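Bench notes, afternoon.
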Amino acid sequence: AVSARCVAPHVRPALINGAAGVVAFDGERPFAVLAFTIVADRAVAIDVFNDPELVAKLQIRGITA
């Protein structure tokens, strides 16, 4: 099993097309995006995008180190 501590250095919070999410990196290159749908302060859905062409087209903002 992979722990959150193991992947944490490779995942950064971001705004994905204006919504809360995270971006997973392989070095400097984003390879997966998770976009959260939030309702009443709870995540009710998580959309995972890992197609390289789609990830390259997404508007990703607010990535922090």
